[in-house]
Amino acid sequence: MSGKPKLHYFNGRGRMESIRWLLAAAGVEFEECFLETKDDLTKLQKDGSLLFQQVPMVEIDGMKMVQSRAISNYIATKYNLYGKDLKERALIDMYVEAIIDLNELLMTHTFQPADKKEQHFATVVDKATNRYFPVYEKVLKDHGQDFLVGNRFSRADVQLLETLLMAEECKPDILAKFPLLQSFKARISNIPTIKKFLQPGSQRKPPLQEKDVPKLMKIFH
């Protein structure tokens, strides 16, 4: 019998956080093994656990899975968060890939040099409010349904909510011009498994702080 999925990463968001969100949304309990030092990473690399020498790595169903998109695809398929047919899956993929693009911008903000932070922040806000959020607002308006695809809960809803909350951490009023996204945020946040994950004490990670960056650099560089 397979045990709980085991997640290998540092104790922070990074590229593992969307995987944590998906597992939590599916109601799946998971364990975490945190990398604290470069030696922890080196050990995984030397024992053959990391196919491409990189984390995130998730032990699940007898596999040691790497590459965050592959892991997320597997979890979404396994727990029926990936649409009912090929066309729905294609829509979910398009929405999720764009969410990942915005998520990458949000994640890298903390790592920007002091003289680049202001410009990077402006870029994040511009792309969020002019490129990405209007699309999801229009999708919700056009079909008038509660969820992004097929009127059923999918990974697209999970990952959009994750990124909406990250964007609000960056700029609290960033959804001011998007009433349907505000409603979406409230609605998806109230799904029992998501609601539980948003409570204090869950395995959701806080935003990365500048003081955390040197420790990460020591692990990964």
Structure, explained:
The chain is an alpha+beta fold. Helix content is 54%, strand content 7%. The chain is built from 9 helices and 4 strands, in the order βαβαββααααααα. The protein has a 4-stranded mixed beta sheet, with helices on one face. The radius of gyration is 18 Å and the shape is globular. It starts with 5 loop residues before the first strand and ends with a helix.
Q: What distance separates the N and C termini?
A: 37 Å
Rg value: 18 Å
Largest sheet: 4 strands, mixed
Order of helices and strands: EHEHEEHHHHHHH
In summary, what is this structure?
Helices cover 54% and strands 7% of the residues.
Keywords:
221 residues; alpha+beta; four-stranded mixed β-sheet; 54% helix; 7% strand
Task: Please write out the topology.
Layout: E1 6-9, H1 17-25, E2 31-34, H2 38-46, E3 57-60, E4 63-66, H3 68-78, H4 86-108, H5 117-143, H6 155-170, H7 179-189, H8 192-197, H9 213-220
Parallel strand pairs: 1-2
Antiparallel strand pairs: 1-3, 3-4
Helix pairs in contact: 1-3, 1-6, 4-5, 4-6, 6-7
